[in-house]
Amino acid sequence: MSRTNFKELLDAGVHFGHLKRKWNPAMAPYIFMERNGIHIIDLEKTVVKIDEAASALKQIAKSGRKVLFVATKKQAKEIVSEKVSAVNMPYVTERWPGGMLTNFPTIRKAVKKMGSIDKMSTDGTFDNLSKREKLQITRQRAKLEKNLGSIAEMTRQPSALFVVDVCKEHIAVHEAKRLGIPVFAMVDTNSDPSDIDFVIPANDDAAKSISLVIDLMCKAVAEGLEERKAEKDKESTSPDTDEAPGKAGKAKFTAVDYDEEPDVKDEAGDEEEEVAEKAAKEGDAGTDEEE
Hints:
Blueprint: H1 6-11, E1 16-19, E2 31-35, E3 38-41, H2 43-62, E4 67-70, H3 74-86, E5 91-92, H4 104-123, H5 131-148, E6 160-163, H6 170-179, E7 183-187, E8 198-201, H7 207-290
Parallel strand pairs: 4-5, 4-6, 6-7, 7-8
Antiparallel strand pairs: 1-3, 2-3
């Protein structure tokens, strides 16, 4: 079953592209027509691409990996921070810090710096500082929180990147491609889809369009997390149910061995006696011939 339909996308304005003079020829396969100098996106293809992207994101979340959402444009910040935080995924809505992916250890040091400042405020070290030092550290903490607070739980590089505007977030896309991280993106008619692994042709300027697509992606991630949780619960309960049959089977096997063991030994003893008797007869025959 499709996650969305033509009418929902139409009502959200997902089909509106950019002016014809601003288009990127690489987006020609996803353009339906031109109307009043504006390109119209083919929503039939958008529906298919949304389902493909949602299915892939669901599998990533199900495997326990992280998806980093990137949307620094004004109309997408609040939408992304609200919906993505609900599924416990990292996101970047402020300026993209250069080297977020390619220089990840340095970014992690900055995140740890926030933790050390918080520790100073709890263990009493903060109280021993001068007023000027307190102000400087407080400002530094606020700046780090604004830029990196949403990725504080991301202890390793993400397994995928979701971008709202390819043109605006071209640095993030470049870093992801350099590291081989798959990129999911909303791609408008003025963007180049060649570097995107999962292209979602859609209007990346309207708040309704962004909200609809992000909501569908977050629902897919939530489904993957729920399935992962269900599998873990099933695995944690399965040893308890298998324990009793295992013990019963072991007891039964031991009882059978115990009952059959004397018969096996008697048969082996009879065979040994027959062999000894035969050898004795052959020995007697040999002595008779020598005589």
